[in-house]
Design goal:
The structure holds two protein chains of two kinds.
Chain A (H helix, E strand, L loop, with lengths): L3 E4 L2 E4 L5 E7 L5 E7 L5 E9 L2 E4 L6 E3 L9 E3 L8 E8 L9 E2 L3 E5 L1
Parallel strand pairs in A: 2-11
Antiparallel strand pairs in A: 1-3, 3-8, 4-5, 4-9, 5-6, 7-8, 9-10, 9-11
Chain B lengths: L3 E3 L4 E4 L4 E7 L4 E9 L6 E6 L4 E3 L2 E6 L4 E6 L8 E9 L2 E7 L3 E6 L1
């Protein structure tokens, strides 16, 4: 199993550009989520999905869109990039069922918005 | 007030030392508790879950105090490879898949 994969690893955007961060998992996990990590601030939840076709907002959803057309994929779209979206983005997944089941994180995408 | 608070450190200790981190959480509806480890420029990885009765995994011991709403992690016989940032994580009763992270405590173990 590849686990959780993310592409690209690095990206530089200009203000106003749009792009999609890709996330895929091959563990047949129901739950997938996107977090961003900024210095001194722990990871914060952007959007999450509890299954194909179902998504919801997390703590910091503004400026981002998601969709979940398949169990495997959960792309994150930046509609019009802003410097405040410079961050490290992590995708995560977990199976359903037991409370407290661990989440698995992808390697991250480092985004710089100029 | 942050939902999960940690001392950012860094904690700078010699090899072989015992070091303890604490974490406090504000929501009494918190249900599950974890310690994650994050190496520089890498993704977080689960170190251990934290159970009400306390639990141990080798050199690592985690404790939970629900009454005082804090979680602790004790590392005995520190190794150079323990140098990392340790993230305290909780989930709430009605959304067990949404992790709430502390900002992390940085540990540096020196030779």
């Amino acid at each position: 199993n590849a686990g959780v994969t993310q592409t690209p690893k690095f990206q530089v955007l200009k203000t106003g550009q749009s792009m999609t961060l890709q996330c895929a998992q091959d563990m047949n996990h129901e739950y997938m989520s996107w977090y961003r990590q900024d210095p001194g601030m722990g990871l914060r939840l952007i959007h999450y999905s509890v299954g194909a076709g179902i998504t919801d907002q997390g703590e910091v959803p503004n400026g981002y869109n998601v969709s979940r057309s398949t169990t495997e994929d959960f792309p994150l779209r930046l509609l019009s990039a802003a410097p405040s979206q410079t961050s490290v983005y992590f995708c995560a997944s977990r199976g359903g069922g037991r409370i407290g089941e661990t989440q698995y994180f992808g390697p991250g995408t480092r985004l710089l918005v100029l | 007030r942050k939902e999960v608070e940690q001392d950012p450190g860094p904690f700078n200790v010699p090899e072989g030392a015992t070091v303890a981190f604490n974490c406090t959480y504000s929501n009494s509806a918190s249900q599950s508790f974890f310690w994650y480890r994050q190496d520089c420029r890498k993704e977080p990885k689960l170190l251990m879950s934290v159970y009400s009765s306390g639990n141990e995994d080798g050199r690592f011991t985690a404790q939970l105090n629900r009454a005082s709403q804090y979680i602790s992690l004790l590392i005995r016989d520190s190794k150079l490879s323990d140098s990392a940032t340790y993230l305290c994580v909780v989930t709430l009763m009605d959304s067990s898949y949404k992790l709430i992270f502390g900002s992390g405590t940085r540990l540096l173990v020196r030779p």
